[in-house]
Amino acid sequence: MKKLAIVAVLIAVIVFGIVAYASALTTATQTVTVKVTSRALLTMSVTTNTVDFGTVDPGVVQGPQSVTVTVASNALYNLQKTGGTDATLGLTSSLLDHPAKDFAKTAGQAYVDTFNLTMPWTTNPGAYTNSVVYTAAQ
After folding, report:
1. Is residue 115 part of a domain?
2. Does residue 100 belong to any structural domain of this protein?
3. Which domain does 77 fall in, by range?
4. Least enclosed by CB within 10 Å: which of 32, 71, 109, 129?
């Protein structure tokens, strides 16, 4: 019986030793560190670069004519507009009467600026222009 117990122990040692040896040979571990740096990106587009009311008569409401400003940004951003209103021309626009701050990150947020014009009777005849500048900044 002692011999049987010794044989059983030897068989167990051999089997578990082989299994342990085999698993030690088939296991390897490596660590890879993945690094990336995201750069700041801000884009802006407008649907048209010209709003043309054509030839108008004083006192007659013209419009609306719209421009869509689309901003994409991977960080908080500010959007502001200069121009777009002119009392002499009776020109008004709807977007951003004051700077807007800290808009959320976006893959493409559209803002519609609607222009209306009612030429006052006091405005001299002639051709007029008004520049509107949209500025987005992170």
Report:
1. yes
2. yes
3. 42-123+132-137
4. 32
